[in-house]
Design goal:
- The protein is mainly alpha-helical and 132 residues long.
- It has one domain.
- It is 55% helix and 5% strand.
- The chain is built from five helices and two strands, in the order αααααββ.
- A hairpin with a 5-residue loop joins strand 1 and strand 2.
- The termini are far apart.
- The N terminus is likely disordered.
């Protein structure tokens, strides 16, 4: 078991429906046992964050919920593509800030801005209208 503070996002526990790396994907990560464990936590935390955004807005009644879900799914696809391209655990550790809660939310917000959706999500996964 790793010491320290756990996952980079500070999220605790895994919900049954949250996406996680498969054992095959974990086995493909190269590095020491501790590096692989840490990289796995970084990736799984990123998935938990994006899955939480999807869960919070899926089927929602607010005006932009479906747009937020679509943008979050695009970010989830980016995480999955990154997992497929990079199997070096130390790279995940070195670049972990790109996969923390704030950066995942920023990436979702970037997708919303590109589509001219006038909202952004906050750290609590609620959204607010952007001021013009």
């Amino acid at each position: 078991m790793m010491g320290g503070r756990g996952g980079a996002s500070g999220l605790s526990g895994v919900r049954n429906k949250d996406t996680q790396l498969t054992q095959k994907q974990i086995n493909e990560l190269k590095g020491t046992k501790k590096q692989v464990e840490w990289a796995t936590n970084i990736i799984n935390d990123a998935y938990r964050q994006v899955d939480g955004i999807i869960r919070d807005h899926k089927g929602g009644k607010r005006q932009y919920d479906s747009d937020i879900v679509k943008s979050a799914k695009e970010v989830k696809d980016w995480i999955t593509a990154s997992v497929g391209k990079v199997n070096n655990a130390s790279m995940w550790i070195d670049k972990r800030q790109l996969f923390d809660t704030m950066h995942i939310n920023d990436r979702v917000n970037k997708h919303l801005r590109v589509k001219d959706i006038p909202v952004e999500i906050s750290l609590t996964s609620n959204f607010r209208r952007k001021k013009k």
